[in-house]
């Protein structure tokens, strides 16, 4: 494979007065091309070992011994090895990329914040909060104490920041007796800041006075009842609401201090073998049984299996707290190379299994994502992260990619399972061709290394990773990423998807094709006929569940997944989009999962954007054609809806003008709620809903945007108006009696012009209906098989099954089809479980590939060229037939 075109340094910014990109001059006699070449990566590894041997010969010996027999290395010994290696790897990469000064500056930022955490542990928690309780703190005058503290510091004009507080307190603690009065003032202030509502509001964004709350699992979200309604519904108090406008990123995540706060809150329990965040919390072992005991379950019955990727969380926290961001990222990447696709607002399996089970857990996803961002913000940060996914000496099992195997794999679906699997298979030495049913927008060749026809072209190193980002409200959906692209909302920065894509697409062993449907454009038979040695299905979930109720398909009723896909893939929320997606208020969302929660928030955010667009276009067309001529084209129903939109849009415009003149943020939410707002209706209690039991933080974030959560409501029918459009949702109201049984209390009617149904999805098993001889079913899922092709039973919803069974079918000549992610009964449910299926399952695929001879007799370049010819649709010719008719001739051989 190394015979294909290699990357080259190309200048994409020079010319026409543009500032040239800085030139990447690597150390140790290496070139940029070496970083994407198997032999080059082996040279790089040898250089690191030589570098390490100069000062740490014993460490090199430990590393090489571990690489020789990694399966014999105890977990604690491996953890200590990678922690010991981390600072040396950081220094080596600093020299490799010539960023030693920037790494020192980043480390200094960590060291400058260190007083916060020593003060928090040694003074705030162990002294101040032991001496003064909440009943004392509420009597304190925070402003007066702050002034007294600054007077003790000798500078009454200074601002009392948390860092200033910590530095002075730490200094005073060196001589406690002579500083007793100063320390008592500090203790009183700390108690006020940590324990009173006013203090928490003052320091709510800080870390010094933040104390972990005790967990009340029935009250994880601070809800209050919605009043004057005949059913039970919840909301947040007005003081908790967060006014949102549009579709910019809604959560930028924590800063460095916040991440270090989490890393220092972690007790680094890998040292005692108690890192349940990674390996899960298990029941006590009984007797001398060899098998591991089952995982404990949360109070909601959710198995506490820990991170599906078994990321080395405790280890990376310890290294991050020591100021080594690059070393911490390298530890993360050992088990989670696609870390850009996990972290904050994506996963929380690790948090649920944290050793802290009675108080707030460590917010591991926040620390993880901040660690990645810290590295990406360095010069050449993207190239460093990218390199660590191909060469990572902390990975004792596979420090660099295996030699080419000569085998080719077709990966179907480029969602979390698909792109993670593609990475691991390439690092195992295989060629990967990836297809996705969605159209995937091309990236510039100088960035991706792929030309318009799929040919390899030179690409440039990325100096500043921010060049890969764009505002989410302007970003064009690129199609890559599956559910991470069309299902996850702007609570997560989708610019990470471009990073993930580049990690794969720049590699010569990878070819990506959009708009190719497996089962249509290409089938299992045709793929094997082309010379693929394995087919891996990672096509995600299937069709959504519909409500079998009267008028369940009336105009105004649609599935939540359809709404989210239409909103995001069509760009309906963009001012210049002509996508026709209509939402009318009030909105009722049916369901209690995360899809329902996301649908509620996005419909709430979309409505003002929609009516703004309508008013602007109405005014433009009225000026051009005249208002009467415009209205003449509308039916009676269209006139009613148009006037509704115009009235609401003008009210929103007036609110913005009033807010601007008053110097405040416009409260559009209040207007929307007055027009009916958005209500999420669930058949059980809020605390029973999947969104609450799995990720209650997402429920709270959604309620902050102003939705209402109604509980105990089961859909009965949709009421329609004279035109057949939805006008209300009728539901059966239920309450729990003293015995914990649901009792019906009568029907309730929720006015609703838009009803969005989020009642779950079915596994995507359409292939079993289209090709029943090749794809068998086992209930709702595909029938798995073992290595001999015989039917097998995977563990259901296991995330970490004792036996990994990802094989689906065996071809006559010994080649296999496998399945992953939401297609699989062990791994369905969320992004990180899908990625876990790829990490756990790729060794099975490689093992099967080792047992068959390569099917294709052509070289890799010829093999990929054939797919480029067959699977890339291109515009062949454009012909204007009449003034109003244009003929477009498309070449698409497959």
Percentage of helical residues? 40-55%
- Largest sheet at a glance? 7 strands, mixed
Count of helix runs: 30
Order the strands across the largest sheet as they lie in space: 1-2-11-10-9-15-8
Unreliable spans are: 1-6, 9-19
Shape: globular
What proportion of the residues form beta strands (DSSP E)?
Answer: 5-15%
Termini gap: 25 Å
Mean pLDDT: 94
User: Which structural class do you get from the secondary structure elements?
Assistant: alpha/beta
* Number of strand elements: 24
Q: Report Rg.
A: 29 Å
Summarize the structure.
The protein is α/β, with parallel strands linked by helices and 894 residues long. The chain is built from 30 helices and 24 strands.
Q: What characteristics describe this protein?
A:
894 residues, alpha/beta, seven-stranded mixed β-sheet, 30 helices
Topology:
Blueprint: H1 38-55, H2 57-68, H3 75-97, H4 100-131, H5 134-137, H6 142-153, H7 162-173, H8 180-195, H9 197-202, E1 223-225, E2 232-236, H10 256-265, H11 276-279, H12 313-321, H13 325-335, H14 349-352, H15 364-376, H16 381-390, E3 408-412, H17 416-427, E4 431-436, H18 445-448, H19 483-486, H20 495-505, E5 510-514, H21 524-530, E6 534-537, E7 541-544, E8 557-559, H22 560-569, E9 587-590, H23 594-625, H24 627-632, H25 636-662, H26 668-674, E10 678-681, H27 690-704, E11 708-711, E12 713-720, E13 726-736, E14 742-751, E15 754-757, E16 761-763, H28 766-770, E17 777-778, E18 781-782, E19 784-785, E20 791-792, E21 807-810, E22 816-819, H29 831-849, H30 860-871, E23 874-882, E24 885-891
Parallel strand pairs: 3-4, 3-6, 4-5, 6-22, 8-15, 9-10, 9-15, 10-11
Antiparallel strand pairs: 1-2, 2-11, 7-16, 12-13, 13-14, 17-18, 19-20, 21-22, 23-24
Helix pairs in contact: 1-2, 2-3, 3-4, 3-12, 3-13, 4-7, 4-8, 4-10, 6-8, 7-8, 10-12, 10-15, 12-13, 13-15, 15-16, 17-29, 22-23, 23-25, 23-27
């Amino acid at each position: 494979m190394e015979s294909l075109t290699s990357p080259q340094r190309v200048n994409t910014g020079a010319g026409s007065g543009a500032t040239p990109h800085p030139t990447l001059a690597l150390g140790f006699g290496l070139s940029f091309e070496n970083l994407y070449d198997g032999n080059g990566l082996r040279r790089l590894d040898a250089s690191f070992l030589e570098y390490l041997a100069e000062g740490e010969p014993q460490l090199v010996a430990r590393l090489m011994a571990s690489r020789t027999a990694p399966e014999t290395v105890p977990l604690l010994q491996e953890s200590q090895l990678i922690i010991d290696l981390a600072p040396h790897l950081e220094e080596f990469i600093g020299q490799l990329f010539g960023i030693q000064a920037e790494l020192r500056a980043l480390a200094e930022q960590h060291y400058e914040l260190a007083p916060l955490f020593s003060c928090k542990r040694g003074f705030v928690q162990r002294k101040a909060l032991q001496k003064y309780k909440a009943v004392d703190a509420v009597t304190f005058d925070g402003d007066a104490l702050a002034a007294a503290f600054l007077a003790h510091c000798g500078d009454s004009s200074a601002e009392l920041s948390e860092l200033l507080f910590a530095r002075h307190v730490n200094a005073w603690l060196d001589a406690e007796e002579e500083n007793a009065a100063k320390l008592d003032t500090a203790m009183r202030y700390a108690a006020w800041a940590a324990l009173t509502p006013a203090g928490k509001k003052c320091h709510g964004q800080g870390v010094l006075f933040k104390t972990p709350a005790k967990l009340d699992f029935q009250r994880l979200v601070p809800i209050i009842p919605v009043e004057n309604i005949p059913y039970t519904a919840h909301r947040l108090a007005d003081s908790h609401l967060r006014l949102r406008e549009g579709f910019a990123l809604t959560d930028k995540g924590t800063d460095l201090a916040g991440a270090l706060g989490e890393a220092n809150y972690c007790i680094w329990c890998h040292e005692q073998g108690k890192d349940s965040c990674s390996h899960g919390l298990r029941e006590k072992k009984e007797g001398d049984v060899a098998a591991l005991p089952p995982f404990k379950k949360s109070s909601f019955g959710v198995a506490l299996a820990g991170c599906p990727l078994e990321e080395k969380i405790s280890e990376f926290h310890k290294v991050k707290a020591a100021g080594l961001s690059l070393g911490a990222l390298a530890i993360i990447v050992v088990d989670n190379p696609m870390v850009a696709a996990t972290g904050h607002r994506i996963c929380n399996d690790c948090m649920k299994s944290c050793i802290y089970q009675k108080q707030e857990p460590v917010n591991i996803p926040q620390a993880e994502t901040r660690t990645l961002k810290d590295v990406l913000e360095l010069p050449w940060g993207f190239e460093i992260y990218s390199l660590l996914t191909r060469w990572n000496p902390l990975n004792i099992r596979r420090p660099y990619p295996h030699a080419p195997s000569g085998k080719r794999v077709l990966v179907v679906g480029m969602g979390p399972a698909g792109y993670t699997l593609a990475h691991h298979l390439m690092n195992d030495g295989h060629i990967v061709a990836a297809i996705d049913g969605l159209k995937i927008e091309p990236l510039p060749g100088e960035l991706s290394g792929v030309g318009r026809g799929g040919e390899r072209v030179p690409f440039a190193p990325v100096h500043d990773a921010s060049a890969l980002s764009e505002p989410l409200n302007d970003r064009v959906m690129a199609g890559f990423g599956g559910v991470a692209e069309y299902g996850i909302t702007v609570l997560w920065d989708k610019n990470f998807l471009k990073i993930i894509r580049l990690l794969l697409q720049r590699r010569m062993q990878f070819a990506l094709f959009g708009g190719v449907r497996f089962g249509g454009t290409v089938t299992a038979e045709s793929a094997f006929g082309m010379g693929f040695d394995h087919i891996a299905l990672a096509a995600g979930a299937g069709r959504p569940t519909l409500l079998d109720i009267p008028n369940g398909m009336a105009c105004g009723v649609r599935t939540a997944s359809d709404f989210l896909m239409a909103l995001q893939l069509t760009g309906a929320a963009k001012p210049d989009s002509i996508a026709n997606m209509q939402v009318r208020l009030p909105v009722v969302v049916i369901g209690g999962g995360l899809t329902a929660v996301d649908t509620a928030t996005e419909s709430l955010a979309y409505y003002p954007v929609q009516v703004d667009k309508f008013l602007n276009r109405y005014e433009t067309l009225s000026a051009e054609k005249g208002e009467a001529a415009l209205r003449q084209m509308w039916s009676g129903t269209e006139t009613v809806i148009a006037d509704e939109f115009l009235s609401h849009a003008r009210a929103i415009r007036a609110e913005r003008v009033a807010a601007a003149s008053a110097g405040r943020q416009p409260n559009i939410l209040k207007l929307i709620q007055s027009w009916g707002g958005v209500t999420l209706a669930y058949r059980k209690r809020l605390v029973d809903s999947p969104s609450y039991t799995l990720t209650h933080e997402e429920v709270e974030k959604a309620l902050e945007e102003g939705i209402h959560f109604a509980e105990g409501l089961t859909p009965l029918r949709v009421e329609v108006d004279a035109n057949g459009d939805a006008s209300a949702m009728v539901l059966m109201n239920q309450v729990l009696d003293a015995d914990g049984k649901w009792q019906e209390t009568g029907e309730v009617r929720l006015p609703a012009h838009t009803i969005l149904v989020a009642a779950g999805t079915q596994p995507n098993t359409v292939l079993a209906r289209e090709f029943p001889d090749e794809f068998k079913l086992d209930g709702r899922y595909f029938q798995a098989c073992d290595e001999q092709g015989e039917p097998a039973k995977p563990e259901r919803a296991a995330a970490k099954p004792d036996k990994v069974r990802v094989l689906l079918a065996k071809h006559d000549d010994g080649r296999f089809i496998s399945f992953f992610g939401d297609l699989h009964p062990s791994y369905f449910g969320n992004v990180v479980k899908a990625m876990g299926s790829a990490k756990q399952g790729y060794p099975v695929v490689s093992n099967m590939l080792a047992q068959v001879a390569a099917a294709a007799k052509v070289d890799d370049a010829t093999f990929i060229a054939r797919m480029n010819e067959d699977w890339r649709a291109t515009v062949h010719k454009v012909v204007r037939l009449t003034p109003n008719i244009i003929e477009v001739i498309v070449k698409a051989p497959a």
